[in-house]
Specification:
Length: 266
């Protein structure tokens, strides 16, 4: 059975950080629901490969190498949308990375890199695409902005002051823009995942290492009440709901997605 409120047909979506992991899972889910999806990533080869794989499966996708830290790049993305589609209905700010270190050892580069990609990157995309998002379509449909935050931006995490600060800023940006844009039927929400396996942040690389400390990852998974770590598809399912008409009355929310971790905090 098709649920009309979940269909994304005739919608245009942008997903940043879509070359792999959570971003790719989100792009795939939006495309499966009928949206035309623009996949963006700083890694040109990964985003092109991702786009080709989705296109081969019948998805209506377009890939673009975009560095969200660069206003020129995000302005270029907005211009591409104007020329190719003439509109934007769904913006998913997912680009992110970690550069973990103790605060007293954290470098300016580590702080700036993480905050520029996560917080400034989302700001750049929203500002560059503001006219597209603010243009009320003839059918009156809501436009959606979904920011991929993290429980780290709510509860904090040791050895990652840069990441926690950037995700907290993203939550603040979400709430501010939900108020600013509500009158134009633009819903702005955030999802805050906990541990999600199989991403560039947590998946083992060729040498067996990850971007996060192994002892931290093992401890987090052992503490999850539901009994497993999250998957990119779990995030994609929530994002696709928020992108749909069924979520038209939801805005300014930060929805935690972590298998019950808050149970341990009571």
């Amino acid at each position: 059975m098709t649920i009309p409120g979940r269909s994304l047909e005739d919608r245009v979506a942008v997903v940043t950080g879509a070359g792999n992991g959570i971003g790719l899972a989100i792009a795939r889910r939006l495309a499966e629901l009928g949206a035309a999806v623009v996949l963006c990533d700083i890694d040109k080869s990964s985003v092109e490969n991702a786009g080709q794989a989705l296109a081969a499966a019948g998805a209506a996708v377009f890939s673009s190498a975009v560095d969200v830290r660069s206003t020129a790049d995000t302005d270029g993305l907005a211009q591409l949308l104007r020329e190719r589609y003439g509109r934007l209905d769904i913006l998913v700010n997912n680009a992110g990375l970690v550069r973990d270190a103790a605060l007293h050892k954290m470098t300016d580069e580590q702080w700036d890199m993480v905050n520029d990609v996560i917080a400034r990157g989302a700001f750049n995309c929203m500002r560059s695409c503001a006219d597209l998002l603010r243009a009320v379509p003839e059918d009156g449909r809501h436009r959606k902005v979904i920011n991929v935050a993290s429980v780290s931006g709510i509860y904090g995490r040791e050895l990652s002051a840069n990441y926690c600060s950037a995700k907290a800023a993203l939550i603040g940006l979400t709430k501010a823009m939900a108020r600013e844009w509500a009158g134009r039927k633009i819903n702005v929400n955030a999802v805050a995942p906990g541990f999600i396996g199989g991403t560039g942040l947590t998946a083992p690389s060729a040498d067996g290492t990850t971007s996060m400390r192994e002892d931290f990852l093992e401890r987090v998974v052992a503490d999850i009440p539901i009994g497993r770590g999250g998957r990119p598809g779990d995030v994609a399912a929530l994002v696709s709901f928020l992108a749909s008409q069924d979520a038209d009355y939801i805005t300014g929310q930060v929805i935690e997605l972590h298998g019950g971790l808050e149970i341990l905090r009571v």
